[in-house]
Design a protein that fits this description.
The protein is α/β, with parallel strands linked by helices. Helix content is about 40%, strand content about 20%. The strands form 4 sheets. Strands 6-5-4-7-10 form a 5-stranded mixed sheet, with helices on both faces. The chain has a 5-stranded mixed sheet with strand order 13-12-11-14-15, with helices on both faces.
Length: about 375
């Protein structure tokens, strides 16, 4: 609310506006009376507020509430056309994009297949992102100018000092120092690039296993291994954005993951926790069988559980979370059997005993987290009536 003074009528009106808008997002259509009750505003003030928001194109009437004595009360809801967002998830084989209105309703999706290590991909990353966004915009007839926020989830993390993507050697087309600016140029909108595991943790906070927890760690066990660390409800990023890169964590019996400070640019030499529990590690342990089949084998599941418990013990000893959420391909393939075995392996250790759960998010948690993040950013700007 730049340019305003705390306590002025303008600021107070904006605060009341935002409170009402957040209620409509969270609870759906509400009457003027109910909004007044929930915000503590008088009926005249609530009426003025709704008239103001309706004129601004932020709310609209949507029928009426019947079944009570007296005239039917008008229901109000967020106007979906007030703003739109784009969320993307980037992987080694392509880019997934969704576009949603300000209420979170998805209005378009698109997938662009692209081999991340193909030579031509290295030079047209921004064009591929634009293609995915345009494909998701097309069903609703929207354009770039309609987007209030764009969030892209990728492996690795943008180094705040250099602007380069680190810890993602398998995405060579994403290592330009001008990556964020390049994406903003092709979309005509600012773009936020966020670590994919961090976004999966956002999804868990909003609608998954971590909804009631402010101190948790999400451990992503897939083709790669990483973690998102949330303490006091705040996501920890670290000095270079690399907090949670536990795939590189040294473990007994695992070769060290080497590559120095240039590891983001070269091939991943393997090693560390990732070499013990990732999808390739499971396949190697099970003679090439895919994780779903491999982890149905009791011996394979027991060994992966032992390795997972060893790595998790190090994380728990340092972070002391109240909850650990297992997510990603390997965690989903192992399911409750793997979770139970990991829990049993950690029983009796001289460590705090966090809850251990497997993610139950439907669909792609990275894309879900990117959408939630984009919606939060968009609402901060679109709902600011100051």
């Amino acid at each position: 609310m730049a340019g305003t003074t705390p306590g002025t009528p303008r600021v107070l009106r904006a605060m009341n506006d935002r409170a009402a808008l957040d209620l409509l997002v969270a609870q759906g259509p509400l009457t003027r009376t109910r909004i007044g009750e929930l915000t503590g505003l008088s009926k005249p003030t609530a009426s003025q507020l709704l008239a103001r928001l309706e004129e601004a194109g932020l709310v609209r009437s949507t029928g009426s509430q019947s079944g009570r004595p007296g005239p039917n009360a008008v229901l109000y809801e967020i106007d979906p056309s007030a703003g739109h967002v784009a969320a993307l998830s980037v992987g080694p084989t392509g880019i997934d994009a969704v576009v949603a209105d300000i209420t979170g309703t998805v209005v378009g999706t698109c997938r662009v297949e692209a081999d991340a290590v193909a030579e031509d991909v290295r030079h047209r990353t921004a064009q591929l992102v634009a293609e995915a966004v345009d494909g998701a915009l097309r069903p609703s007839g929207l354009g770039h100018d309609d987007l209030a926020a764009v969030v892209v989830g990728t492996p690795g993390a943008i180094d705040p000092h250099t602007g380069r993507l680190r810890y993602a050697p398998h995405l060579p087309g994403w290592h330009s120092r001008t990556l964020t600016a390049d994406l903003a140029e092709v979309l005509g909108r600012p773009v936020v690039i966020e670590n994919d595991v961090n976004l999966a943790a956002v999804a868990e906070q909003y609608e998954g296993a971590a909804q009631d927890h402010d101190h948790f760690v999400l451990v992503w066990i897939d083709e790669g291994v990483g973690a998102a660390i949330v303490l006091g409800g705040t996501l920890l990023r670290g000095a270079t954005g690399g907090a949670g890169e536990i795939g590189y964590m040294p473990l007994p019996g695992a070769p060290l993951a080497r590559g120095g400070t240039a590891a983001w640019a070269g091939p991943d030499a393997g090693g560390g926790f990732q070499s013990q529990v990732s999808g390739p590690a499971v396949r190697a342990l099970a003679g090439g069988r895919p994780p779903a089949e491999a982890l149905a084998d009791e011996a394979v599941c027991a060994e992966i559980a032992r390795r997972l418990a060893t790595g998790l013990a190090s994380v728990v000893a340092v972070v002391d979370p109240e909850l650990v959420v297992l997510s990603g391909l390997v965690a989903q393939a192992g399911g409750e059997d793997l979770r139970r075995r990991v829990e049993a392996e950690m029983t009796g250790l001289a460590l705090p005993r966090p809850l251990l759960r497997t993610s139950d998010i439907d669909g792609d948690p990275i894309l879900t987290g990117a959408l939630r993040t984009a919606l939060a950013q968009a609402r901060d700007s679109v709902f600011d009536t100051a």
